[in-house]
Amino acid sequence: MEVKEIERIMEKYDADRTDVLGMLMDIQEKERYLPREALRHLSEKLSVPLTRLYNMATFYEALSLKPLGRHQIHVCMGTACHVRGAARILDKLESSLSIKPGEVTPDLNFGLKTVNCVGACALGPVVQVNGEYHGNMSALKVERMLKRYSEADKEKTE
Amino acid sequence: MSRLNSVGELEKLRAEILEKRDSGRPCITTCLGTGCHAYASQDVYNALAEEISSRGLTGKVDLRGTGCHGFCEQGPIVVIFPGEICYCRVQPEDAADIVALTVLENKVIDRLLYEDPVSGQKYERESEIPFYKNQDRLILGQNRLIDPQNIEDYFALGGYKALAKALAEMTPEDVLEEVKKANLRGRGGGGFPAGVKWETTRQAPEKEKYVIVNADEGDPGAYMDRSLLEGNPHLVLEGLILGAYAIGAAKGFVYVRQEYPLAVKNLTLAVQQAEEHGLLGDDILGSGFDFSVSIKRGAGAFVSGESSALVSAIEGQVGEPRPKHINTAISGLWGKPTNLNNVETWANVPYIIERGAGWFNSTGNEQNKGTKIFSLVGKVNNTGLVEVPMGTPLRKIIDDIGGGIPGDKRFKAVQTGGPSGGCIPEQYLDTPVDFDRLKELGSMMGSGGMIIMDEDNCMVDVAKYFMHFLKDESCGKCTSCREGTKRMYEILDAITRGEGREGDLELLEEIAWVTENASLCALGSTAANPVLSTLRYFRDEYEAHIKEKRCPAKVCKALIRFTIDPEKCDGCGRCKRNCPEGAITGELKSPMTIDSSLCSRCGICREVCHLDAVTAE
Amino acid sequence: MVNLTIDGKKYQAEEGQNVLEVALENGIEIPHLCYHENLSPYGGCRLCLVEVTRNGRAFLTTSCTYPCLDGIIVKTDTPEVLRARRLVLELLMPLAPEAPQLQALARQMEIEEPRFKTDEEADDCIRCGLCVRACTELVGAQAITFSGRGYRKTVEPPFGEEALDCIGCGTCVFLCPTGCIQMVDKSAERTIARWQRTLPLKACSSCGRYYIPFAQIEFARQKSREAPAEDWFDLCPDCR
Ligand SMILES: Cc1cc2nc3c(=O)[nH]c(=O)nc-3n(C[C@H](O)[C@H](O)[C@H](O)COP(=O)(O)O)c2cc1C
Ligand code: FES
Ligand code: FES
Fold this sequence. Notes:
- The structure holds 3 protein chains of 3 kinds.
- Helices cover 50% and strands 11% of the residues of chain A.
- By secondary structure, chain A is an alpha+beta fold.
- Chain C folds into 2 domains: 2-108, Roll (Ubiquitin-like (UB roll)), CATH 3.10.20.740; 130-234, Alpha-Beta Plaits (2-Layer Sandwich), CATH 3.30.70.
- The longest helix of chain C has 14 residues, at 79-92.
């Protein structure tokens, strides 16, 4: 990550160190993970101990020290989705992608993660991909959904 | 837009807005809330816009994108005014008909009407649909009438009238007194009287004070705060400004979870608009009162919604609870007196100030006034956001509004209060829903999640589910919560795997006791509720798992077996194609069979079977 | 000054003191693992639970974090208090089954057979956070931190790699109640394996003993307002 980019994010928050979590989230959104140099840079410039940034990076669900997938799939495991069979959706995704939650496919194309409620409970079970919601999911729909994202990629590269 | 420098200027602006608006002019509203958005309501909106402009109706027909109406399951929802004709599950292709028939010819399109799944009856007007008819939508009601990104819509409905009234006619003490008289109880969990809390902060000696909106909404299965922030952000802001005025705070924060990007967006916009209009900032409406608001995003941690943890998070620390023997009301943000309330609590305030405590007190029961929004989800016909007077019986919510349980399944339990709550069985369905009664039943009001379970839900599995959630979401600081939730989970997991032993339930109860009594924050001290309440009402289900190695609801994978009924199976092969384990064999067009030794009991075959031929036993 | 009652006797305490402090000063034993008088109270281990009655309401709370307030009544040995402490220790034991301090407490509380199996990943750390607070508050090096949350919470240097800010002072080693942080001095080198840190040591110019990491000297010079004399660190404390 370029230093200029980090500086720009810091400026957005007037380099106020109480907003360091916001900065971390912005970096995460931009890079799909928190690069170490970025944390070191923030630590130095804001005089926030690196230990605290590392603590935050490991405490919050939305932050990751490892690159996430280009298509980050969040399977909602909230209560409403659970009672409507979210576990089955997760099973299906695990077997289709051959990865476990928290992992990324070797080509970094898909990342899989379980989350607790994305706030669309009436549509459960819900899967969120890159922030897009897919409601009333079923095993069959999972196949179609994955195919759609893979094909969209192919179109882009062609 | 220029600043409003007095209450008079606000009223003048309101009059101008109302003047411009012709209530007879057709207006098509499309819900763009998160639920409908997931059903591509933006495409519907775009198609309608296209249709309006291509027919040269721009300026003659209004189009408005609104926040969540609450009936997300039927989305995308389109309502056409002035007739209030409500269409469900609308597709972009329907746009032409909607404009041509309904808007221009006043004809109702039958295929788009809501059809009651039980009676088969169709309804034309939104307010006639049983889901809405049986509600009392005091707080949520404006959502369907407002474009949340347009402050004029809020003004048109009387927005910021309460603030104008307070600044022009009331002292801060008057405002505080009114909220106290209204006996408004906190909607975020505990039901603590807001007025009393405000007063503590107001009277704390330090001059610098803060107010906070808790919009971390971490309860899985609940999304009313989201819908309010996304759909009517100015209502929450107005409540916050009123609170700040009463308390004497010059600075406020809204802590929103990052999982709600639209809420962050609409709220940010609302703050900007309020600043531009002189409703936030220095010398609000020329009254001499200064107040500003910042928005902070949470990064995904349930425990950060706890008040002391939230204070840490806003200060830029890790969002972990602190031991608080001194209330945050007296020593919160940077050690200063800080008043924190839930989104819905704040949203009640403008109504209380505008219409008076007496009016507010006319809804609800003795100790619980006003309404409460619930997120009615799970195994119920109509899922969505439901607002009812406090004290409404559970049965009314589930049957009259929710339309009962789908299929011919039997109701088993309703889970309220999120991970700190409990499961309530059928015999208590006539209980009025309020803070105190739910507590008596071993559950909680919590923030308003209401998850319905039917006979196909295993209560041990549900308890295990919550414990899994809590052991992951515990901050891990104190032993009793960190280790207690972990151990309870281990035991529950063993029971669902058929490895439960004699004495497990007693051990569970012991750990539950220490977790409840020895933990640092309310996450720990309520963590045992899901276990204790299911043990209280469904002990026989636990015992079936332990003694007979049987899961009565046929959920626990280790205790069930899937088979295909050869009589019913037509050999279509769907199950075979979708089985992730390759456990299903058989020729096409002849009955399939499941190899139990390969089967992982994921249940996908049952889900994809179109003939209901797969059964669990 | 405030007045409070502990186990039926009246005591005076200074405003701002916590209950545990006052109890210990007066010879009342309350077991505790995460409290240290020179560090900010943390309230993590939950062993120091007592029953407090305030304004007529009795509840269990940790004495290390509870402030001495006027008129509170503290009981340190009710059956409930003892039961809770016992269960807390039972929950802690599997994390560090071999730790002598925990075993001694277990004997005191007459816990024979622990009811919970030892975790596979048990690393003898009970998450009391003394090391983290010492490194942050006393030393100021801020080389280690908590990471993660819930049952996955651990203590580690940033990124779980070598603690680059560790000066090898050994304060954490000295304070750890389970002995899970080991420090080994081998001729001119000091190693704290848990923080993956090895540092060269300076020898005393008189007795020749390797006694302090250069990094610690450097750190002390930067931190202290009045720089110690140039040759202050040439001699070990014994030879000074
Ligand atoms: C673990 C935990 C999580 C919580 N999460 C929330 C939350 O997401 N939103 C909320 O309003 N209150 C939450 N609370 C309750 C708050 O601590 C606090 O009581 C509430 O926000 C006060 O507002 P009220 O009085 O208006 O209800 C949580 C409490 C605990 C213990
Ligand atoms: S429980 Fe899945 S979206 Fe809320
Ligand atoms: S000594 Fe008080 S909680 Fe550890």
